[in-house]
Amino acid sequence: PMLEKVNPLRSSHLRDPLGPEIHFANESFVDEVALATGMDPIAFRLKHVSDPRDLDVIKAAADKFGWKPHNKPQQIRKGDIATGYGVSYAQRNGTRVAIIAEVEVNLKTGKVWGKRFVCAHDCGIVINPQLLKQTIEGNIAQALSRATYEEVKFSKENVTSVDWETYPILDIMDVPAQVDIVLINRQEIPPNGAGEGSMRPVAGAVANAIFDATGIRIRQAPFTPERIKERMV
């Protein structure tokens, strides 16, 4: 069969299979360009988008979060804990999503905790607000797991990530302490969908927040303690 010829590894479904990694790269670079040109990351994005729906979600996320403009990593520290804030923005089939993440980085262990997320979400008309919020919360939790924990590893012969110890996922101890959601209800626009849109910006927002906390730009996910400590040396 073709699967044996093309790819010896069995695969299955994955929510938004290309979005998180593409937007991790895109939004990390946008953040990097903004700071390199001496601009606040929110202000830079607002300068370079023109569609009112794009502008509205970015502004709504910033307002809800209480974003304070800055043009360099803030590196807020209390003991071994560094706190940072990062923004990321994405589209998915007409749905617009802006996410701001607040993370804590343990400078001693390298562990990253996505403490708070603000998501501004425009998927057209909102039909069931409660279910939509629950969908977004689930997306953020799953995307945070992929950004900070999940990684398939290989030897020369086999996949070595075969159980929950070798392929860890986010558990109840590491979920965000707070998720704030702003729904922008466009009653004149048909529903564009919410199943994957809020998956896309999470990794980028977390990476940008890690940079804001530490001054270290992480270019490979997941953002494991080992990778964080390696870059801090």
Write the layout of secondary structure elements.
Elements: H1 2-6, H2 19-36, H3 41-47, H4 52-65, E1 76-78, E2 81-92, E3 95-106, E4 112-122, H5 129-148, E5 178-183, H6 202-214, H7 225-232
Parallel strand pairs: 4-5
Antiparallel strand pairs: 1-2, 2-3, 3-4
Helix pairs in contact: 2-6
Structural description of this entry:
By secondary structure, the protein is of the alpha+beta class. The protein contains 7 helices and 5 strands, in the order ααααββββαβαα. The protein has helices at residues 2-6, 19-36, 41-47, 52-65, 129-148, 202-214, 225-232; strands at residues 76-78, 81-92, 95-106, 112-122, 178-183. Helix 2 (19-36) runs parallel beside helix 6.
